[in-house]
Amino acid sequence: MKIYFSCAMTGGRGDQPAYAALVSGLQAMGHDVLTAHLAEPEVMEEDGKLPPRQVFDRDTAWVRACDAMVAEVSTPSHGVGYEVALALELGKPVLCLHRADAGVSKMLSGNSRPGFQILAYGEIREALGWLESRLR
Question: In the chain, how many domains are there?
């Protein structure tokens, strides 16, 4: 399955180790993670050099091409929110994850739209098990 992995970039990279574990786990399950590079520690060095329009065009094309979106939403991000909304408008399933101790927008936690699911996790292995059961 082609997965668009979405995570905070300019809003903060404190959850980068979780992003890396999630992407690695998705790949181990056999999924093609279109945005695997977003989980890399040095991604800001490369993506930071790209003009905004190029990032927008590239990322929205990936959202259109994916079979499902997985978003780690512990760190607030305008871009992630936009991508989640776009994926839902396109009829893509969206699976959001966040640390149990993270405050998450009520626009996400209150979303009952078909195709949208959200999970608060304590440990990454819990998040990976949840993803595996939903992405079969």
Answer: 1
Q: Which domain holds residue 130?
A: 2-134
pTM of the model: 0.94
Helix (H) / strand (E) element for 27: namely helix 16-28
Token readout for 24 is 């690695």
- Give the strand order in the sheet containing 2-6: 32-33, 2-6, 68-72, 94-99, 116-121
Calculate ∠ Cα 14-88-123, nearest 5°: 35
**CA–centroid distance for 136 within its chain:** 18
Note the pLDDT of residue 14: 83
The residue among 111, 48, 103, 45 whose CA lies nearest residue 84 is: 111
Please list, residue by residue across 76-88, b when 16 or more beta carbons sit within 10 angstroms of its beta carbon and e when fewer do. Answer: ebebbbebbebbb
**pLDDT tens, 97-133?**
999 999 999 999 999 999 999 999 999 999 999 999 9
pLDDT of residue 59: 95
Q: The domain spanning residue 49 has which CATH number?
A: 3.40.50.450
